[in-house]
Amino acid sequence: MYFQRLNPALLCLTLFLTLASSVTLAAERFDVRYLAQINPEKGIADVRIQLEGDLLPKKLVLHLDEDRHSQLESSDPLEMKGDKAIWRPNGKKASLSYQFKINEQKSSGRYDSRITKDWAILRSDKLIPPISATLPAGLSSRAYFRLEMPEEWSAALPYEEVSGDRFRIKDPGRRFKRPKGWMILGEIGSRQDIIAGISSRVAAPLGDNIRRQDTLAFLNWNLPHVVEVFPEFPERLLVVMADDPMWRGGLSGTRSLFMHADRPLISGNRTSSLIHELVHVATGIRGDGKSDWIVEGLAEFYALEILRRSGGISEDRYKEALDGLEHWGRESKSLFKKRSSGATTARAATVMAAVDREIREATDNQASIDQVARGLAEERGKVTLAQLRRLAEKAAGRPVQALSEKSLADRGE
Fold first, then answer.
1. Where do the segments described as Disordered lie (predicted)?
2. d(CA 162, CA 142)
């Protein structure tokens, strides 16, 4: 058999060019620039998405809210299929524009997105809809978000501010980046601090009866304990607050949350809505259709547990609060609902407390539910009962009876 002898110099050159080509491909990037022109008089934002680079995505699918996104236009091929816009960028530059209706009113009459002549509160991941991207191998994006607002307005977003109206977008793990999380614009006031390494900001419209400094102080006491459980907590946190007619509750988002001004920092049952939403920000998990009780129960458990750890409530008050949740939870006939709230969430929180006790007893206090919560946060995405059991058994070193079929069984009428 005949083997051809390769020239060593030629072999080295071939390897070098191959590696150089791979590095170039891996480092290939294109720019995404999001521009939103805010029009308070019309209650809309005119949005433009601009792409630029030697290589661009082959296809982008925008998943629209047909009641809020309208008048889509692009010089590139654009196909509408129901609530989807299929955009096929051409060349080295491409752009797409549309209008976005900012106001969104719930059936209760309250708003979870609102614009007035003085301010606007909304989520950037509603303004910029979910986008599915088809990208060549090795291609990723650099993304920036710019706002055009009335001259006297300013903005707060959970992103690095490059200038007063321009922000650098981070979205780890995503090759096509887009803005996410709550934002507030207008004549606003804010308080901010670095807490446990987290750049934390509390912002609200001027003139509203908002306890910005109280809320920041509450974060100073409790956020470090949240970060101890979830060390991968986002490096930035924005808490947006407002009074009526905004929705009277709390809603989490990416690196951010909204909390109505009337919500107490600690409720009458001694849990905290603010800490509850912080846990949602930390975990980034969601239910799979029957597992929302895990998401909400974990958040409600820590809404009480973190207060105990920070000294916000005493051990006796902590036990009384758990007893209260256990009593309320008896009203819940089933944990396995699409949406967990009220008695179901109370019951779920007591399940988490029982899981914590079992793990501590099994490990002589060397492990706790913290390892389970941390594992869920690391895996993120949809959470399942099987996943919860696996992590709890790993922490305890044995099956956890609080998560057995018998313990979680539906209750009769």
1. 394-413
2. 14
Alpha-carbon distance values, 375 to 86, 255, 308, 372 (Å): 36, 19, 22, 5
The alpha helices in 114-265, defined as continuous H runs, are: 124-127, 212-229
**Secondary structure element (H or E) that encloses residue 16, with its range:** helix 8-26
Distance separating alpha carbons of residues 388 and 373, to the nearest angstrom? 9
Measured CA to CA, the distance from residue 338 to residue 362 in angstroms comes to 32
DSSP letter string over 97-136? EEEEE--EE-TTS-EEEEE-SSEEEEEHHHHS--EEEE--
Q: What is the pTM of this model?
A: 0.91
Residue by residue, DSSP assigns 258-305 as EEETTS-SS-TTS--HHHHHHHHHHH-EEE-SS-HHHHHHHHHHHHHH
Residue 317 and residue 333: Cα distance in Å, rounded? 27
Report cis status (omega within 30 of 0) of the bond before 264.
no
1 by DSSP, 3-state: which?
Answer: coil
Task: Locate the domains of the chain by residue range.
Answer: 29-263, 279-408
Q: Are 131 and 177 in contact (CB under 8 A)?
A: no
3-state secondary structure 307-368: HHHHCCCCHHHHHHHHHHHHHHHCCCCCCCCCCCCHHHHHHHHHHHHHHHHHHHHHCCCCCC
In the three-class reduction of DSSP (H, G, I as helix; E, B as strand; rest coil), residue 379 is classed as helix
Q: Express each pLDDT in 354-370 by its tens digit.
A: 999 999 999 999 999 99
DSSP secondary structure, 56-74, as one string: --SEEEEE--TTTEEEEEE
Domain range 29-263, CATH architecture: Sandwich (2.60)
The pLDDT tens digits of the residues spanning 160-196 come to 999 878 999 998 889 999 999 999 999 999 999 999 9
How are beta strands 84-87 and 111-115 bridged, if at all?
A: unpaired
Of the candidates 131, 144, 71, 61, the residue with the CA atom closest to the CA atom of residue 101: 71
DSSP for residue 376: H
